Structures
1.
Amino acid sequence: MKSKDKHDNQYVSALQVARHAGVSRSAVSRAFTPGASVSAKKREKIMEAAEALGYQVNDLARGLLARRSRLVGLVVTQPELGYRSHLVAALTKALIHRGSVPIVINTGRTEEELVAAQKILFGYRAEATIILSGSPPSSFVDLARRNGQPLIVLGRSETGADDVNIDNEGAGREAARFFVAGGATRLGFAGALSRAPTTVERERGFVQEAQFQGCATVIGNGGNSDYAGGQEAARQLFERESDWPQAVFCVNDLVAFGLIDYVRKQTRLVIPDDLSVIGFDDVPEASWDAYNLTTFRQDPATMAAHAVALLDRRLAEPDRPPAHERLATLLILRESARIPAGYESLRPCRNARILSDGTAE
């Protein structure tokens, strides 16, 4: 008997398994339903037939019948960039381990792309939506809420939604204290005009602490928080030699990479002797010899685990108040920044980790 009745390019059906095993269609359904009534002998016969035919249960159809989807939408703009790509990878892994089916929705940058993304996500009745920092606009969040979907928001906050955030302001303050402890008095911040919530918070903490420490500050903003944005921010920060900063805190590692390459090519400054640079994220490239970037680490696996835990709690308790979680960051010491006297004992370790209060972990 052929493994497929008519069309070799079609999936094997439960009916084909039933015919192969010589049982009813309902028996096949019960055999693949945990706790359903079916004899051990018949179940074994059905499983052997399913194995021979390569049959897999249609979980999508089963979910629709049960009015409960296992799909979870991950809504993100430019998922291929920097830390975002690693967070998407960690989220998909965590969701699969949970038994969910993650769907990555790239919202794009135009209104048409956003509308298309909305139709796909809500048309498939996803069980929940996880929205990543900086994207999409609040209108997308409002639509998800009106459709009754649980919302988990990462790296930003939305009214009525659970969220997981990094202590961005605390990291900004620690970066300023680190630079000042190393002797810097003119501090720079390399950000982006896109003004994502994370950018605003890191800049605010850094500038406020720098002012508290009595330091002059200068800000350079690229168009986006990417490598090209880092180059543009560097052009602004190092436009006039008399105003060159002695240390720069970059909104993320991609911006730091662009800034470091610009400084090496366009100025006579030596990193870290003349200029200290700190990034944010600790993407794998930060440890490459080309950069050896001192940076704040936010662990994508930890962020994903907290997001999934919030999702489980929301589904178990739909009416509970929104939860707001804040995760600490760690400053990873490498070679792009001068190490202050208080941190010298950790200098031999290329990946020494400093807590937000300045003490060693």
Note: The mean pLDDT is 83.
2.
Amino acid sequence: MINEELLQEFGAIIKEYSKNEIIFNQDESARNYYQIISGAVKMNNFNDDGKEFIQGIFYKGQSFGEPPLFIDVKYPANAETLSESSIIVLPKTNLLKLLYQHPEIHLNITKSLANRLYYKAIIASEISSQEPEHRVLRFIDYLKDDVHKITGNFTFKVDHTRQQIADILGLRVETVIRAVKNLEAKNEIKIIKRKVFR
């Protein structure tokens, strides 16, 4: 989202993370801006029974964890890598200097956060009112169309596991497996070597 060279001009460093490494924990103070160079990161919470709820998954070129930086609150979720990841990290004070000097970047961040809010509203609506097949398909279409911007039939490979989709949509994994099979039967998706394509 922000040019990597510009981030480094303002004091950013590149950090390497192993798979399943915690970047920050829920209830920690927000001190840095994070942008993914390679890999993937999930933000999650756990309920009292230990069940995971995935707030979002972020990929190459995306940033995560910004809202607490702007409103001085603690992180509402944990951030954990899903694979080996290279992440550019910029301290909050340096980010604010960058944004004051580059208002067009500030506008881009505002647009990105607005897109995420819109997506969260859509998902909340889907979770509360739609059938599992519809919810799964809508989520996959969001990834294909809005996150990765891929066109064409069956050109997008879903990298999420069935369990991750269940955790994001508030479904049981068995329900997601059944929904995926039904969507394949309706020719909405294809399953090739256990991977889902849309």
Note: The CA atoms of residues 20 and 149 lie 27 Å apart.
3.
Amino acid sequence: MKQSGTLYFVCGKMGAGKSTKSQQLAIDNNAVLLSEDEWLSSLYPDQIATFEDYLKYSAQIKPLVKKHIQNILSVGTDVVMDFPANTQKLRKWFLDLASEVHANHQLIYLNLSNEQCLLQIAQRRNEQPERAAFDTEEVFNHVTKFFEAPVASEGLTIVEFNGKES
């Protein structure tokens, strides 16, 4: 019987570097990278203007994405999901996704301070001006209210980075 692939997913506050870390994980593990931002912008162009819009459309794509990822994992290919795993409910979705097809998983936790995240958001605004309307301290503060750090009782394989690693 062929071994299932490993599912990698990332947790961290807005601006922690989840997309950058996901891209590097995909390269390092020769894995398929799936980006929520890419799926959402392709399926719902110009329809996501608020955090509530994001939550609505993100929930809509999850059933399709889940089956797609499980098919990839089932043939032994590793998958990196650049989708935020920032609440216990979301992390349970990832864990179920992997366990239903007997795949291993790894949660990458980017444990950065609010100050580190805000500095990276400011840098991202300069590098990607099209994100300036969403990448603000106000949005960061709003989104961070929902963030839940992972805990051992969730049954996850957690690898933590605190921003001092390269």
Note: The chain is about 45% helix and 15% strand.
4.
Amino acid sequence: MISLDALASFFRRKQSALVGVDISSSSVKLVELGRNADGQWVLEHCGIERLEPGWVSDGNIEKFDEVAEALRRLVKKTGTKTKNAALALPASSVITRRIVLPAGLSEQELEVQVESEANQYIPFSLDEVSLDFCVIGPNPQSPGDVDVLIAASRKDKVQDRQGLAEAAGLKPVIMDIESYASRRAAERLIQELPDGGRNLIVALFEIGAYTTSMQVIRNDDVLYERDQAFGGAQLTQQLVRQYGFTPEEAENKKRNGDLPEDYATTVLRPFVDTLAQEISRALQFFFTSTPHNRVDYVMLGGGSAALAGLADAVTQQTSFATTVIDPFQDMELGSGVSEGKLRREAPSYLTACGLAMRRFLS
């Protein structure tokens, strides 16, 4: 039978206190959310701990002990006492399929049907897989049937992240998908757009160290997804070439703003222009691959999203309104959260925030 334990719970809800932990190629991020008496979101804890290049590569944990120690430091630094954790796998590590099944099946009958269907889509034995599913709702074309979403990943991928959480004293109770988590955090802000964001086409870019992930969203549908191999690490490489820094020096100086006087014109501006061109090129792939020829908004998240001038450069390149996303917008800040530092780093927390929101899924 299908393993539907907590660590296969791509879709299950969790209402008890929960931290969202995002493990990327350049850092580990933690977010804990709550709600006040008025129902307003409260950012209770958050923090970020940098990772050395190569510790995590293409979503794979290459240096387990070092990443585990970084996560331990992060948990201590944030001051959270919560042990339950939601983590996520890269979309490239998860197979998702939407299938149609008869309505009215019991949970056990659904499991049997899903296992049978999953055999057709998963290129390895189900014994090697963590598998989950959720009923999305009635199938609009077939009365009496329902749409069911299946998600599956190799158990070793899940167990790597499980082990990291446990090594840091956390209890992993949810395994999500990174793109689902970032979209969940963005949807709250899309609802603040005109008409509540209804029927608007929004291109969401999450700019990581090595990869930029793009999702084009309309209402609850993902129209298009694409990853491209560019990101903030290329700016670090340019600093190394331009000024002779070591990679570690360049990364530290980039974070601290301790850079030569000509940095803005010699290095930053050309990089921002190149990044804007890459985003424009990604949008062109969307237009040539779908019936659409425009988007209503571009939203930028990830560590490099807040680079000075990037949003304006994207608007200039594409003609589309562009904003840098702040997943903590309109949230009340807990006493342990430093607002000044938070606002500078906020775009980095998009996925971690979406993971923390799993606590309140209905």
Note: Residues 1-8 have pLDDT under 50 and may be disordered.
